[in-house]
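Dear U.,

For the methods section draft, I wanted the exact inputs and outputs in one place so we can describe them consistently. I've listed the two proteins in the order they'll appear in the manuscript figures. Please don't edit the token lines directly; just add comments below if something needs changing.

First protein:
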Amino acid sequence: MFVLCLDESGTQGEATYFVLGGLAVFEREIHLLSQDFDALQTEYFPRETGRVFFHAARLRVREGQTVEQPWDEHSNQQRIELKDRVYEITRNRQGVLFGCAIEKRFAEIRDEGPYDMAFEDLISRFDLFLSRANRNALRQGGEEQRGLVVLAESNYQKAIGALGQRLRTSGTRWRSLHNVADVPLFAPARETRLLQDADFYANAICGRYHGKHTGDFDRIALKFDREESVVHGLAHLTADSQCPCIACFSRLGR
């Protein structure tokens, strides 16, 4: 079983982009990723007995702004260092990234909700990834795997749950789904390390497209699902037909 955990970013009114993104891992990797986060907590918060909620926004507070506990124990530089350590976890572990960045103006032109568009896009990409993985596994004498999608609890939960049911029954606008085992499940990000991990990737993607900050995005860019030179795991839905980002550029001529 592959588990794809997704979180959103860019829900604030001033954001020009909405992003849904996260990490797909084979089930046994979930425990290892949780151990990585627990080790970071032990290193940076040795006095904390409860589980610290890792959240990208809490590590991006600028110098002079109010910092929530327990993050106020560290300097701005230490928080930046910790953020970078989180991205290093994915670079060093097995897993494949997926993300969809939707220009809100593009969604308005299409008269569609950006969360609905992003979820349909990513569940289709995840299903295609599983199809390729299963073909390779069968050629090597392995077993087929199914996929499960887990989302952070949010105000979108009811609508996306209904959309997930419809997509599993009727398929996406592009194809039927063959490998997704169930409608999306929802879990509290505060209690789920993999969803906390997903928050950092959604934040990095949003930073790249909304804020034009490439540093965090560049750290994870090679982890997006790809086949040869084509980046399948990242979608950029925009009104700009000349966009040179890796998602758009890799599909030129296709």
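Second protein (the one for the lower panel):
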Amino acid sequence: MLETDVDIAALNSMGPEDILRHAAEVYGDRAAIGTSLQKTGTVMIDMAHKLGLQLRVFFIDTLLNHDETYELLEEIQERYGITIERFSPDPEEIESLNKSVGQYAHFLARPMCCQVRKAGPLQKALATLDVWISGLRADQSEHRRKEASRASWTHIQEDRAILKLNPLLDWTAEEVDRYITENEVPYNKLYDYVSPYGEKYSVIGCRMCHIPVRDEFDPRLGKFPWEQSKKECGLHDHGSGI
């Protein structure tokens, strides 16, 4: 795909449904929704279904997700009559990581662990695509608020650029929840969990890297809670800076 052939400004002015429709109609099976089955991902799947779009959906399976996440994957497939493509880490790379750092690489060398379990499988997925549709939102972090856009080029493949679309970029968490309630969209049941101390999940990913936190804390505190950083796993840190 040539960057000069795409009107980025026009894409940035489109609403979510128009972006999804454009991706499906122009790029066909070279476009796909990439989701870790967070709420924004299930919202986009529901939108595409209601629009009658045959968009591919892929899931980066780190092999360390909660049981509830895998249950949701099955529920989504049955509800919408789709097959979610799963891209997983190379077992040899996991073994090499464990031999190098140990079985707790997520604590001792978290960027390396994310590279093997997330970035590597993403590369496999993007090798089949020209357009990556992401559920990223600006209100998820200061980094994303400053750097993200609705449409941009991400040079995540060495020999070519991938068009990255974030249809729900400007949606708030409240708007996402409202859509889910009004349209009865399936979501991860861990979002309903409340500990005896008032802790809730605001971000759900690998079991050991995401914890529930109380409402008075920054929602991103529960992601890699032992780190003080911009809280990015590496999937959204390429190209345009996000």
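Candidate sentences for the figure legend, describing the second protein: The radius of gyration is 17 Å. Residues 106 and 124 are 21 Å apart (CA to CA).

Thanks,
Y.
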